[in-house]
Amino acid sequence: MANTDYQLIILGGGPAGLTAGLYAARDQLNVLLVEKGVVGGQVLVTDWIDNYPGFPDGLSGSDLVEKMAAQVARFGLKTRNGNVVKVELSEATKKLTLESGEELTSQALIICTGARPNKLGIPGEEKLTGKGVSYCATCDGPFFRDQEILVVGGGDTAVQEADFLTKFASKVTIIHRRDTLRATKVLQEKAFANERIAFIWNSNVIAVEGEKEVERVRLRNNNDKEKEIAVSGIFILIGTIPNNEILPLDQLGTDKHGFIKTDQEMRTKIPGVMAAGDIRSKTVRQVINGAGEGAVAAIAAEHYLSELD
Amino acid sequence: MAGENVKHLTDAEFEEYVLKADVPSLVDFWAPWCGPCKAIGPVIEELAEEYAGKVQITKMNVDDNPTTPGKYSIRAIPTLILFKGGEIVDQVTGAVGKTQLVAMLNKVA
């Protein structure tokens, strides 16, 4: 048996990582979960979850995380806060290097690093982030009570959060680069029925402007006509990008967007390395399948480890 | 269940307790409706214990205290600002991990 610190390391503590940790700790593997922030991942910022079974009245994202964390704690999962800066993978040893220089090794690794909100990459966006530019409606929505704001995007997140934001804002305008929404029908219908939501179609935001805070945005429509509108907030909800910067992507194999490809047992091309949750190449990114993939990955890791013995 | 070492600040106390203090202060701007704020709560309590006597670890509820967050243009939470001698030394927004906060506090501790 290889001489490693752990049998299994789980990298990332969102729903996929926590569920993998639950399975692995419950089966008494020598396992460590490494998380760079706080456990929970993107679910933490989800206002309300109505489609996670077992909670008939729904619950907030942070409450779901709290319950998941309590459940893994019950089985004694070791977790460690640390920022991994390097991942080196060989068949025998999986090695993580922390920012502090410390190294952690394991025989098997489950990658659950997740995804993060995509940015527009336009002038003013970076400078005014946290000062009116936001990627999280539930975190920042209440700062815009009785104000006019913009939501960029046309998918589930954008449409659902626009509806949520009307709890606070006097008017929410959804700006979308096409003339139809991509969001599921039930969300679309809710948004169309909401009197406080307006739409601007076939247009892009090209700049965010303001001295200390967001004051206005510049738009350009598909006919190249520009206009300026006054808003105090802009919520950019245009999908996610993979948290893959520290990973050896060529070795792992990814799709063209940088999400990791796996087989249906969550195994990557490298023996003993699994991936689960939003970092995986897939079409559906929900809490429930993230958690499910975590379970599958943990079982795959157990099979891998048992064959090493 | 707030840790005993974490001081809950009001707008009225801010200047005296933070800006005019001899020791540095970390202020965690939060609200009860904010999931990530809730998630970093336990970390803040741990830091308050570990940095007792070196850095004042404080929290300010932005719903109850709108003036101070307004002054610092805070429109996203959690935002954590580290003050020393009345000036901002460092600030960070989001549910950051303990390691990152320790690195921030060690600049002044």
Describe the model.
The complex is a heterodimer of chains A (309) and B (109). Chain A is of the alpha/beta class. Chain A has helices spanning 15-26, 61-74, 137-140, 156-165, 185-193, 249-252, 287-308, and strands at 6-11, 31-35, 78-81, 84-89, 94-98, 103-111, 115-117, 133-134, 148-152, 171-175, 197-200, 203-209, 216-221, 226-230, 233-236, 240-242, 273-275. In chain A, a hairpin with a 6-residue loop joins strand 12 and strand 13 (216-221). The longest helix of chain A is centred in the C-terminal third of the chain and has 22 residues, at 287-308. In chain A, 47% of the residues are buried. The mean pLDDT of chain A is 95. Chain B is of the alpha/beta class and 109 residues long. Chain B has one domain (7-105): Glutaredoxin. Chain B has 4 helices and 5 strands, in the order βαβαβαββα. A 5-stranded mixed sheet of chain B has the order 1-3-2-4-5, with helices on both faces. The longest helix of chain B is centred in the middle third of the chain and has 16 residues, at 35-50. Chain B is globular, with a radius of gyration of 12 Å. Chain B starts with 6 loop residues before the first strand and ends with a helix. The chains are: A alpha/beta (309), B alpha/beta (109). At the A-B interface, helix 2 and helix 3 of A face helix 2 and helix 4 of B.
